[in-house]
Amino acid sequence: MRVEVLPIVLGILPASAWAADYLSASEAEALMFPLADEFAPVNVSFDNAQLQEIGKRAGITARSAQWGVLVARRANATLGYVVIDNVIGKFELITYAVAVETDGAIRQIEILSYRESHGGEIRLPAWRRQFVGKTVAGPLRVGEDIANLSGATLSCNHVTDGVRRIVAVLQVAREAGALP
Amino acid sequence: MSAAVRRAQPWLGTLVSIEVDAVGAQAARAFAGAFAAIARVHAAMSLQDAHSDVARFNAASGGASIECDPWTVAVLRIASGLRAASAGLFDVSLGTAGRMAYGIVGARHVIKLDDTTRIDLGGIAKGYAVDRAVATLRRCGVRRGLVNAGGDLRAFGAGAWPIVVRGGNALALERGAVATSQYRRGRTPYRDDALIAPSAGELHAIDRAVTVAAPRCVFADALTKVVALSGDASHPLLREVGGRAWLQ
Questions:
Q1: How far is residue B211's CA from residue A150's CA, in Å, rounded to a whole number?
Q2: Which comes out higher in pLDDT, residue A127 or A45?
Q3: Residue B2 above 80 pLDDT?
Q4: Angstrom distance (rounded) from CA B7 to CA A177
Q5: CA B168 – CA A15 distance, rounded (Å)
Q6: Which residue of B has its CA nearest to A163?
Q7: What is the DSSP string of B71-119?
């Protein structure tokens, strides 16, 4: 096995809560439908029978009877839909955007932000000591805006469940004539 | 760090985030290419997706030749090397009782050696995907960036990146890759929560977190398992791949 350039670990710093913002809603919309000249907001309401149908198709409850959908248009032609949603996992809140084609196929999924919902961390002196003597820590930005987490237990199961739910929501809304 | 832009998508059963020092069309091209590389690894090596190389291998009967993405074959070659060098501590085969599960033929074909064996690339594919994404970013002319697949991450270019290791501390990574695996006693034996001892088929649930730094993320990812199972933060294989490890 060939040895390549050695990794450099500069030092160890105290950790804090973790959060990351990736895209704003409007940035995500423009990224996912670059040709659209308009994103028209449409509020869709479902009755009980429709909610059951959504639950059946998605294999997961519809969660809400009200859904906000952005219809991506270009010169009044519908290009597709964008739904922005939040899911809460065990420890995290994830905001994400799903772009869906007019035939119901998923076009793209983008994470807008990710937040740890608990900030407490365990200090383990013995473990910390292993890093001592590895030179300077340096003036590094550590805090609310840390972008990188190693050893994360984060899972995207809630996102994939959410995406499935949104696909079913859009299907049922289109069949009911609630969306162009 | 001011010029960095970042993006995240759900792949490989986790969130994959990519951060680059780039702007405009170059950043857009770099993100598109790097996420396409991640998506290719996901499509080829997912355990769940019935069309993946891994699922087709697992469903095939003994003696079958399975045509695979060359990237899957590359990962299996690396896995074979690590298996030999770690005396079987690292093993992507399940239910083989210590035998090899596969043979490699050329760049695109894998032979399944017997009916009952299965493979799971969950302990190596994320690291490989990160390396592929980094290579793509560099090809797009990005000078500095970071790819993080649910905690298996790699940085390149000048300037340190702050990395938080869950459960306690942060470190500053100048370049190279870091992966952390946590093992907790009494947890469901699934993926990174526990290890299936490769040779004995016996459950090893160990109360520890292992962090490995290495030049390539595929080695950082795979060697967390070797260090966890051996309990040896100075395992000789670390030196071979230019890595080092910390036990928590």
A1: 8
A2: A45
A3: no
A4: 34
A5: 6
A6: B10
A7: HHHHHHHHHHHHHHHTTTSS--EES-TTS--EEEETTTEEEE-STT-EE
**Measured between CA atoms, how close is B53 to chain A, in angstroms?**
21
CB contacts of A138 in chain B (<8 Å) are 160, 172
Q: How far is B65 from chain A (nearest CA, A)?
A: 27
Q: What is the 3-state secondary structure (H, E, C) of B113-177?
A: CCCCCEECHHHCHHHHHHHHHHHHHHHCCCCCEEEEECCEEEEECCCCEEEEECCCEEEEEEEEE
Taking the model in full, what pTM does it have?
0.79
Secondary structure of chain A: what % helix, strand, coil (to 5)?
25, 35, 40
Q: pLDDT tens-digit profile of B181-200?
A: 776 544 333 333 333 333 33
Is B160's Cβ below 8 Å from some Cβ in A? yes
**Given an 8 Å threshold on Cβ–Cβ distance, is A3 in contact with B161?**
no
- Asked whether the predicted pLDDT for residue A169 surpasses 80, the reply is yes
CB contact under 8 A, B168 and A121: yes
Q: What is the pLDDT of residues A112-135, one digit of tens each?
A: 987 764 432 333 333 333 333 222
Residue B157 sits at the chain A interface (C-beta within 8 Å): no
Q: Assess B36–A contact: CB distance below 8 Å, yes or no.
A: no
ipTM computed for the complex = 0.70
Instruction: Determine, for residues A7 and B176 on separate chains, whether the beta-carbon distance falls below 8 Å.
Output: yes
Mean model confidence pLDDT for chain A = 73
pLDDT of A145 reads 27
For residue A89, name the pLDDT band (cuts at 50, 70, 90): low
Pick from A142, A147, A155: CB nearest B13: A155
Element (H, E) at B196: strand B195-196
B69 contacts chain A (CB < 8 A): no
Residues pairing with A78 in the sheet? A73
- Chain B residues touching residue A109 (CB < 8 angstroms): 9-10
Q: DSSP letter at A7?
A: P
- List, in sequence order, every residue forming a beta bridge with A97; answer none if it has no partner: A84, A110
Of the candidates A80, A82, A91, the one whose C-alpha atom is nearest the C-alpha of residue A25 is A82
User: Cα–Cα distance between A61 and A162 in angstroms, integer?
Assistant: 10
The residue whose two tokens read 């399940």 is B94
Contact check, Cβ <8 Å, A4/B161: no
Of A87-96, B51-60, B170-179, give the range with the top mean pLDDT: B51-60
Tell me the CA distances in angstroms from B133 to A64, B128, B226, one per residue in order.
37, 9, 24
- How many Å lie between the alpha carbon of B161 and the closest alpha carbon of chain A? 8
Task: Supply the pLDDT for residue B35.
Answer: 97
